[in-house]
Fold:
Amino acid sequence: EPEVTQTPSHQVTQMGQEVILRCVPISNHLYFYWYRQILGQKVEFLVSFYNNEISEKSEIFDDQFSVERPDGSNFTLKIRSTKLEDSAMYFCASSEGSYNSPLHFGNGTRLTVT
Amino acid sequence: AQSVTQLDSQVPVFEEAPVELRCNYSSSVSVYLFWYVQYPNQGLQLLLKYLSGSTLVKGINGFEAEFNKSQTSFHLRKPSVHISDTAEYFCAVSDGPSTDKLIFGTGTRLQVFP
Structure:
């Protein structure tokens, strides 16, 4: 069964550094998402992306965050200047976008900001 | 705004015993409900979903859930659990069946003991 893949599985970075989290969604999917889960807290929606543009974003997704689909297969989340509170598990997801199609999640990237 | 409450952060249970994981959502005109499971070091996997129709929904791995509109609940049940069911279970709600934004609960850790 096709799956969403995320790399790396664990990323450690220093505060203030830029970080890029990478995702390869399922190939025939059209909608792409990033969610995050701070340790011990809820899984939270960050952003959705369709047709090469952001379709919705949450309050968390401020100017420090950006997403990109640089080619036909990758979907990236960039954090320009990381803060300690950005430490979390980041999940990428994709869906076909049609009625009754669920989100398929990747295994996540654990980001640790020191 | 939609919200989801999972009252139990942890549920310990012995193998072959029945289990119920509770989920309550905030009332809305239309609501779509999901249960996701997260096995250790893996992503979120869809267990089952309620979009419309029968209030009893059957999912993978022998799980089922019942949509109760009057009690705004969507509790997850399994009549006999296995060690392999040990995982984190997340209830989620959305405003649409194939939605951009899922609102997750805080999760329930199911621990199955031999």
Remarks:
- The interface with chain B takes residues 4, 6, 31, 33, 35, 41-45, 48, 55-56, 58, 91, 93, 95-108 of chain A (CB under 8 Å).
- Chain A has a mean pLDDT of 92.
- Chain A is about 0% helix and 50% strand.
- Residues 35 and 45 of chain A are 5 Å apart (CA to CA).
